[in-house]
What we know:
By secondary structure, this protein is mainly β. It contains seven helices and 64 strands. The strands form 16 sheets. It has a six-stranded antiparallel β-sheet, with helices on one face. Strands 26, 27, 28, 29 and 30 form a five-stranded antiparallel β-sheet that branches. The protein has a four-stranded antiparallel β-sheet with strand order 1-64-63-62, with no helix packed on it. It is globular and about 130 Å long.
Amino acid sequence: MDWHQQYIGKVKKAVFQTQKAGRKRVVVSTEENAIAALDLRHGEIFWRQMLGVNDAIDEIDIALGKYVVTLSSGGSVLRAWNLPDGQMVWESFLFGSNPSRSLLLTPANFGADKDNVILVYGNGYLHAVSSIEGDILWKKDLAQSGIDIQHLVHPEESDTIYALATRDTSQFEAYAINVRNGELLKHSSMELPGGFSGDLSLPTSDKAVVLDSSGSILVSISFVGGEIKFQKVQISDLLQGYSGTAELLPSKLAGMVAVKIDRSLLIIKVKDEGTLEVVDTVSHVEAVSDSLSFAEAQTAFGLIQQDGGKIQLTVKSSNDWKSHFLKESIEVDQQRGLVHKVFMNNYVRTDRTYGFRALIVMEDHSLLLLQQGAVVWNREDALASIIDVTTSELPVQRDGISVAKVELNLFEWLKGHLLKLKATLMLATPDDVAAVQRIRLQSAEKSKMTRDHNGFRKLLIVLTRAGKLFALHTGDGRIVWSLLLNVFRKSETCENPRGLKLHQWQVPHHHALDENPSVLVVGTCGHNSDASGILSFVDVYKGEELNYLAPVHSIKQVIPLPFTDSTEQRLHLIIDAEGYSHLYPRTPEALDILQKELGNIYWYSVDINNNLLKGHVVKKNCKYEIADGYCFESNDLWSIIFPSDSEKIIATSTRKLSEVVHTQAKVNTDQDVLYKYISKNLLFLATVTPKAIGDIGSVTPEDSWLFVYLVDTITGRVLHRMSHHGCQGPVHAVFSENWIVHHYFNLRAHRYEMSVVEIYDQSRADNKDVLKLVLGKHNLSAPVSSYSRPEVMTKSQSYFFTHSVKTVAVTSTAKGITSKQLLIGTIGDQVLALDKRFLDPRRTVNPTQAEKEEGIIPLTDTLPIMPQAYVTHALKVEGLRNIITIPAKLESTTLVFAHGVDLFFTRLAPSKTYDSLTDDFNYALLLLTIVALVIAIFVTWIWSERKDLQEKWR
């Protein structure tokens, strides 16, 4: 039932470790703050370490051939990890005053000194750190006003290092420092008329190259020996017919610099005297690797050219440009997009010649290893950055529907049978045996591509930060299809596209076999509130984009409406930054449906920055100057302004729109009936005092208050307010049926707490007369309106809880009959299932016998955590972000999907599988029992007949 997948995220930097015999590996750092060692043979993870969310990795390198050195947190934390197993060896905290870029230099050798010194620049200070113990040997303050240090240079067999910097974009600075004691040997500076633009490139240990502020002149700088010399050259003199914008690439090339003009690459050699000479111009270049040293004084680097799905890898020699070591063309899936980065490594072939392998990072965050003209392995690491998840039913297994579009094709079917035949004849290789096992797993009952009667088999549609959409099978977690949405790729019209949400767009009824379900993907072209919006419509079964709209109006909020048109497309209102509502789909039929409901569509907005909560109603069409027929204006109905000097909004939560409530009544042990106050318009909102906004412990308990509100979003009426004195956020809340559970920190008790609030409708409390019920004079069937002032009663209770929490969810089932469990994502990246009965506000220290029979647990001050209650067992979902629950058709079962950097899926039965037999049920014993009963019935019938006959003869 369970599956668990591990990922690392988009690779930022990679360092190969292949010199020694044994396991060949590459150590990578990623955008998800992961450090991992990958097997170069299969791409599997040898080991992985996850740093904190705010501990971004700046640089990575290998020191002494046995330590992986990482610099993170803006140059503040330096760590060494053991290369074979990833265990941390030492950790150093480097303090500084001025934020700056982070630089890491791990020299190969400092003469006879065995304890190699690691040089780190960060926060305005240059530190020298022992690579064995992690001790800080010395530090030098280089932070001066306007100075930006860009490179640390260590010439071979020298005790001097150079720190190269620019000041105020026009002054070049060079510091010569003694590596053993940090003494400043020399400081030279020189002003460049015209100034700099961008970063310095360092082709050799004594020369730098930079673009001037106009972007049309290359400047070479010689700085060794205490004398700084500039030499300028126009790019138009180097390249005839030059036009466009020049960009100096940060790739470290031996004796050369790379200038990118549009998609062409200009390779320029820096001569000994500092003059520049164009070596070659290469078109359609997507990525350039750093220089790779091998053999004796030979260096090479790789170029990647791309045309559609065809990638050409060229490995050029830095010494002799006319010759190249390697030129290969490889076909890759076009759904991977463009090449973003390439890292090169060399190896020795059996004929003692040098071969090359390339590690490539693609636009969709996937990682590929190219070797000998083929893709050796690939990793779909976009799944480490899932933004949103929705589900879809699989096709019905019935004549007339084509399931072959998502099943294996004829070639794969024949290949599978051939592999099985080889395995039967014992001719299969280990790879063939693994392939047969994969095929058997895919053909298993839980992995079929059709829906089952229990509703366990579904498609998980996930949107990733890379703008790629995946369909995962819930049976085994395999990728059924993936689609890189073109509209979410960087372009001239959309510089910074990002995905926001997934919505069910079209969910055909099970009898509509000719229709496929589809989803709506919503995104924007930037992080600003007024950025243009992106809409994409994708077929769930085929994995094809049906249509897209981009750029459209800004997108602030998406409201799925409870209406569908004749094609079963769900109506959506998209609210823009100005508060206008836009209807989708843009069809006359959808417009007619909305016009009938105009005035009954309400929505609310939460402005955390301004401490404002507002309610709105969609009233009329937009004004003529912005009208397109599908635009509507909203009127403000109410607003709640929290005084900024006393309260700050920190968290909100609402009920799931799709949640099913089985019954409104709740019967107590004394036969008293309570009626749940069930409204989809309730909003949970938490605020804290301004002093308590910071981290836990940053305020005294006397100055910290946490306030909790239950607000009706139609009228703005506050139904309930509760305060927690001496408590602080962060607050994590879950809202289900008529109860809310929220988690926070109690400063007085120095412990986390969880509180539950249940809300009941008192206006229906007198509906207990059976005669009224029979005569129909009760008000249970009367419509509930938010405008009729509700008489509500609340019950609440607080409990201590051991763990810090990342996210909270609640199980959901098809009919809402099964008891609820809270799914708590702990700080240890595991999922804990906690029975809702532990969070019952009616718990008492000494419950009566009737209360015990009802299932009320005796009151304790702390919520119990049982090891068996961990849904993830011994596994961790690294970087856990969210927990999704999906009801199955079987009422007792809910499907749980947890995602972060890792993925985890399982099935849960909070009340056990009371409506189905377990997988380990003994069918043989049942059959034997039935047969024995039939025989017994037959024998007793014969005995009875004989006895009756004997009685008659008497």
